[in-house]
User: What shape does this take?
Amino acid sequence: MRRKAHSQTQRMIRDREIGSSGFGEFAAVRSEAQGKFVRFSYPSGAEYRVPTSYLLQWFDQPHYASRKGRYVEAGGKSPWRGKSRLFVTRTRLRDDRHVALVYLSRRFAVEVAWDTVLMACEPRYEHFGGLTAHSRRLVAATFKHVASFSD
Assistant: This one.
């Protein structure tokens, strides 16, 4: 869970400036270390190497599940099975680059929005920690053990 250092100053990242600061969409997303990590890259040059185990804590359930070889919306009917043993099998960006699809073992997939990564990994983001008490507790607990997501 590391963020690559970049040339921007350490000022706050605010929603009203998100596009001009290069944080309003993904530049790339990829799986690393045999699916144990996902690297999210932004046009600003910022990169976040996120452990799959941390990423899965962001979601109560998968967004998609494979049924007869096709990924369909899980619709709350597919709770995580074997969550601690899941790993990333592949990734791809949606056409608008605002959402990354992360495909997991056991035929699950989640959609990760650009701001979700910032809320969970970027202390300079104005909504760091998330918008709920639960998400703030999750992020605070993680940051007690991990100083940064940067390389």
